Inverse folding.
């Protein structure tokens, strides 16, 4: 029954099913009590998977782009999954904080045809990280437009690829015609510390937008 | 753009539901394994909706599919739909429908979020934030502090 699961929370058949919030305070043994969504968006190859992997353990997650008609028995779901060749993989990672608070990260393909996934993901999301590559800034236009339109809090994180020219955040802000309040920062998505700073910047931004900020002048 | 994920209620259950995506084509089509339903009854389940087993015994355990039994076992520990999809290695849409069945039969519940009263971070009004978690300043501050400390 308890199949191969890497997560530190195998089902415990004997555990009581109520009183779920009485467990350890670090939230690792208990399930999440509240889940916050953060999207990681941006063009092809811009570092979405790398960023999600730097701050959390990447786990497989599939959603459907289109399902083919299949006729199988109720107990043959594996067969269905195998036949739905149009499932789309997302980058999925989870950061478990204390007291049952968990951040769910979703890295989604950047092409517009995948926006049907974004519509759901952005609903009730804490915010989004738009990754950008200075060599292909235009590739991030679509994501920025999208989140501006949806009113989803977002930050722009410029991935510092070795071969790319360096620009200052204010230059990038101008090039992307961003609102002055949208944080722009440089990052290296391969490094946990840098990737974490991006998330911190996003949460600060989201907090400012709900008017609960005690953070002053946190970002350029 | 109307589609199930965006929350447009589908009350038909006619088996003909389709949501068309400009580029991607049919987003969801009925499929036999979920008896033709493309979404659970009732409210749409978000990808981070947390489900938790109620502890109630299934009236007819034999009617649960193997996947539903596995899902139910996982939900002894609160699990988001994304967790379930990942752990069971099933596409999210399938998880949604199976979860809908478990909800309908009272075997799982949606875990509701209510802000914990936090004396250290009490907002000026002293009242808990009434909105959704992602707009709760106290929760966001807590997340921020913990992220920084990671
Ligand atoms: N130098 C440098 N390389 C990076 C950085 N982030 C990602 N890369 C590299 O860029 C390549 C693409 O990164 P991915 O994380 O796969 O990009 P992606 O956005 O997930 O790509 P798709 O899913 O194909 O759209 C990988 O080889 C990474 O190692 C960065 O900050 N700096
Ligand atoms: Mg990727």
């Amino acid at each position: 029954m308890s199949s191969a699961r890497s997560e530190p929370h195998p089902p415990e058949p004997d555990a009581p099913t109520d009183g779920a919030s009485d467990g350890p305070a670090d939230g690792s043994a208990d399930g999440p009590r509240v889940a916050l969504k953060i999207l990681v968006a941006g063009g092809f190859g811009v570092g979405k998977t790398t960023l999600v992997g730097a701050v959390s353990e990447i786990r497989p997650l599939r959603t459907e782009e289109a399902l083919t008609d299949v006729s199988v028995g109720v107990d043959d779901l594996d067969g269905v999954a195998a036949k739905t060749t149009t499932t789309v993989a997302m980058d999925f990672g989870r950061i478990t904080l204390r007291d049952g608070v968990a951040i769910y990260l979703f890295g989604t393909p950047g092409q517009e045809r995948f926006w049907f996934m974004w519509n759901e993901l952005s609903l009730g999301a804490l915010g989004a990280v738009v990754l950008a590559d200075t060599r292909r800034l235009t590739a991030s236009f679509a994501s920025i437009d999208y989140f501006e339109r949806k009113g989803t809090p977002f930050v722009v994180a410029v991935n510092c690829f070795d071969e790319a020219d360096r620009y200052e955040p204010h230059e990038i802000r101008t090039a992307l015609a961003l609102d002055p309040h949208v944080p722009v920062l440089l990052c290296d998505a391969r490094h946990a510390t840098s990737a974490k700073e991006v998330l911190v910047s996003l949460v600060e931004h989201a907090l400012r937008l709900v008017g609960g900020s005690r953070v002053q002048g946190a970002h350029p | 753009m109307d589609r199930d994920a965006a929350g447009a209620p589908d009350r038909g259950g006619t088996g003909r539901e389709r949501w068309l995506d400009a580029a991607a084509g049919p987003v969801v089509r009925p499929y036999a394994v979920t008896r033709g339903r493309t979404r659970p009854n009732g409210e749409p389940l978000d990808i981070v909706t947390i489900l938790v087993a109620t502890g109630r015994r299934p009236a007819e355990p034999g009617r649960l599919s193997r996947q539903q039994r596995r899902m139910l076992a996982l939900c002894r520990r609160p699990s988001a739909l994304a967790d379930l999809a990942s752990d069971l290695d099933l596409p999210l849409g399938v998880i949604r429908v199976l979860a809908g069945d478990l909800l309908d039969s009272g075997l799982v519940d949606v875990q509701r979020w209510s802000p914990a009263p936090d004396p250290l971070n009490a907002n000026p009004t002293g009242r808990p934030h009434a909105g959704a978690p992602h707009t709760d300043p106290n929760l966001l501050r807590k997340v921020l502090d913990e992220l920084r400390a990671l």
About this structure: DSSP finds four helices and five strands in chain B. Chain B has two domains: 1-112, 115-150.
